[in-house]
Amino acid sequence: GDSVTQTEGLVTLTEGLPVMLNCTYQTIYSNPFLFWYVQHLNESPRLLLKSFTDNKRTEHQGFHATLHKSSSSFHLQKSSAQLSDSALYYCALRGYNTNTGKLTFGDGTVLTVKP
Amino acid sequence: DTTVKQNPRYKLARVGKPVNLICSQTMNHDTMYWYQKKPNQAPKLLLFYYDKILNREADTFEKFQSSRPNNSFCSLYIGSAGLEYSAMYLCASSRNIAETLYFGSGTRLTVL
Question: Which residues in chain B are closer than 8 Å to A33, comparing Cβ atoms?
Fold first, then answer.
């Protein structure tokens, strides 16, 4: 079945430094959707980014990610971390030609940004 | 309004007793989902309704039931709670199966 791997469970950064959260995936689908969801403390997870197109950069709220099908990766990046970026980040996958509606999540990465 | 509402926020249950969790959305989304989230684990899909059609994951098929009496409302039912059911339960909805999921704040269930 599908799987999503987020190698870092916890990332701690100093404000102003670049952010990179890793995400790789395995799927039987040739055209998967990849997502990044962010969950701040005491809030519900919300969509941050999504992509379907190979090698196209997608951006939102200062974050960006590029889906690379050749390496099955969808890493999340930001040039300069802010204190408010501290949150739990999930990478997730959905097959395009599926009628199951199933979103497969990675285990999540907790990002902590310190002053 | 893109809110998915879940009640209650926290729930305590006794082993062997039933549990009913409630979710609602007013976005007229045709698909509603229930996920289980345990600490340091990925959210795990339990089941989802596409319109009136219930789909349950094979490995949790016998543990969870659900009902959707109308488009806005969806419940998650546990017939006999066990300690292993203690988790955060997240409800989500989407306009259709291929669209973005909107999550509720979750119900934290503790089984004693």
Answer: 98
Rounded Cα distance, B28 and B90, in Å: 18
Chain B residue with minimum CA distance to A94: B98
What mean pLDDT comes out for the span B45-55?
A: 89
pLDDT tens per residue across span B33-42: 999 999 888 9
Whole-angstrom CA distances from B22 to A1, A41, B103, B106 are 30, 22, 13, 10
Handedness of CA A50, B95, A110, A33 (dihedral sign): negative
**Neighbouring residues of A15: CB distance < 8 A, sequence distance ≥ 6:** A81, A82, A83, A113, A114, A115
Distance from CA of B23 to the nearest CA of A (A): 13
Contacts A45 to B, Cβ<8 Å: 43, 90, 103
Q: What is the mean pLDDT of chain B?
A: 91
Q: pLDDT at position B56, please?
A: 86
